[in-house]
Structure formats: C-alpha cells, structure tokens
C-alpha cells in the first residue's frame, strides 16, 4: 500500500517559472525583514495571554471518542487485514501527522485536550503512583520527545514495511507503553514535554489566534527555550526536507547505484536533521522556526491531506459495512495546489522573520541602537532565505 503525499510533481506544474518563485521567496524574507525593521520598532509579543475555553463539557466525550477510535485503529492494525483496505497508515501518517497541524493552528494545542494517552493514564489510575517533582520532567522530556519524533520520521520515510498495518500497530503499542511508563514515573505533566505528538501539537498551537493574545505571542513564551526545543524543531523541519529530497530522481539514482536503501535513508535523515540543528543553534531561530515548519509541512503534505485524508475515512467506514464499493477519486487541481504551496511556504517564512525581529527587540538591552539590533538579526535572515530556497526548490524540483 502506498500513501500519497508530498508535493505536486515536477517544476513544470508551477504556473510561474521556478527561478521567479525562488526570487520571490528570497524577496519575501528580505521585504519582511525590512518592513518589520521600519514598522515594528518595539517588542509587541510580550506579555502573552493564553486563552482557555470557557466551556469544558465537551472534553470528556471528546477524550473518550478519541480513545475509542485509537484503540480501534491499533486493534485493526494488529488483527485486521494487512492490505490496502486497512486505514492504519492513513490514520497515523495523514490524520495525525498532517491533520494535527491545521487543527492545532486553528484551535490551539488540540492533542493535549484529547490525547488518548492522557485518558488511558487516568483510567488506569496511574496518577496514584508517587512521582518526583516536575523539574525531573523538564530535564528529560524534550529529548525523549525529539527521539520519539525522529523515530516516527524514520518509520514514515525509511523503515521497510512502513505501511504494513502490523508494523504500525506494534510501533503504536510500544510507543504507548513507553509513554505510559514514563508518565507513571514522572506524572501526567510528562505528556506535555515528552510525548512527541503533544509537543508537536503544542508548538503548532502557538500560532493559534484563538488561543493567544496578542496573536503570535505564543511564540515569545519560554524564549529562549533551550537546546531540546531546537533539536525537536530541527527533526520536525529537517525530516520534511529529507522527504522532499528523497522524492528527486537524483536520490533515486543514488540509491539504485549503491543499494542499501535503509542504511542510506537512515544516514541521510540523521544528516539532514543534524545540519538543520546546527543552523538553528548558530542563528538562534528556535521559536521563529515554528511558523516555517508549519507552513512547509502543510505545503509538502497538502496533496496527501486533501486526497488520502478522506480516503482513509472511507476505508474506515467500509470496515463497518457502510459505503461498500465506494471509491474516493477526487483530486485537487495541480496548479491550484502549487500556488497554495508557494503561499504557505512564503507566509510561514514571513511570519518567522517577524517573530525573530520581535524576539530580537525583546532581548536587546535598553538603549541599544536599532541598527545594532538589525545587524544581530542578519544571520537569522540569511538562514531563513536559505530555508526558503531549499523548501521551494525541493518541493517542486523532482
């Protein structure tokens, strides 16, 4: 079974020449920087206020519903058909990995509210087990979340049999067991720091206009966040860049000539994430990389979300005897998707530049000349221009 994902074919699908798109990308970052420098002369994202829903009656039904669906998906992956009729791959790679981003951007950290691991933690009464103070969670959590995200990226992009429902089911059971064990040791707060998908949703939720006042102020919270945050973001964005790169004929030819696809894929994934991590650490763009990662991930997997997301729902209901014989054949227009992808990438980078500028203003000592602050931001701007070019080039050149 193959789950469609990624970009829209070749650069010839673009309604504009690729070189013009790349120039527009660099211009967008540069103009965003100059515009924010002229019009954004004081830090405006601090202090931040996180808004919480006034009504919470929906939480328990939503948690139980998500837990029930999760248990069904895992059981179906372990004991159901091991062919294309099983929706397990769609549930993990499309609904959770891709669909969680726009949901979190719209509503805030959605996975925190419905995380089935939190529900299972409470139902199993693991909260009654004594655990050490919260600082122990803070020390280990970000690194465990980073390793978990890297493991997921390896499963999705490299692992043999990655769309085999049985493999997916075993991985999900193992991941749940590890997370519940660590939560029993450190308490329920563990999930907010050590569960890769909850951290992933929380970071995307920093962009939610409903959750944060003023808008984008969630990106100024806990800044600088430390090396663990930088590593997590490097794996998030770097794995998506690696996915784009492996869709190119150059990579396919390289693997065909040398063999050892799994070993080369593993080395390539780690290398790309490592290079992104070095760039993030040297430029200090950790939190401002969040909108870039959000924009690029949604752009990269936009076709998958629009095509395979509904198809997965159809596969699920067909297992219940509904809509038998129905086939999802609706596909978006390639040129429309191409334009949306360019807009998503450029918008993410423009927001990233704005946030980086605000964070630089907030960190500048009182009385520091504005030109000196702008000079400090130059490495960030250059890094973001490189990210923009890389994102656009890899997305459309295959």
From TrEMBL:
The chain crosses the membrane at residues 20-40, 60-80, 92-114, 135-154, 166-184, 215-238, 258-278, 285-307, 378-397. Keywords: Membrane, Transmembrane, Transmembrane helix. Signal peptide: none annotated. It comes from the Bacteria. This is Uncharacterized protein.
